[in-house]
Write a structure and sequence with these properties.
Elements: H1 14-23, E1 30-36, E2 39-46, E3 55-58, E4 63-65, H2 76-97, E5 101-106, E6 112-117
Antiparallel strand pairs: 1-2, 2-3, 3-4, 5-6
Length: about 120
Amino acid sequence: MSHIVSIKTQVRDAVALAAACQRLQLAPPLHGTAKLFTSTATGHIVELPRWKFPIVCELDSGDVKYDNYSGRWGDQRELDRLIQKYAVEKARIEARKQGHSVTEQALADGSIKLTISVGGAA
């Protein structure tokens, strides 16, 4: 039986966030406080390519704080890629906890198809 699922992502898992950063060849997230133009935020700090300021993932709330000045200080697609990879990694982690296997396929439109098979960890 096949099901299509859409996921609204909140960043709450440090392990999945670190795995997403590794997939994108980014430095591992560090916990701390970062300056975001005129404000600061505390959480897991991720440096995205060509962004003037880092993003900060507040795991307790699931919020991602950032200031890219409507794209002038950072390409939104970089953040979108990180969130996509985070969602994939989080889904993998949760499926494997349940003893399911997971396969991944990159699609031509940039989306990712995950197939989770009940039973049989892979």
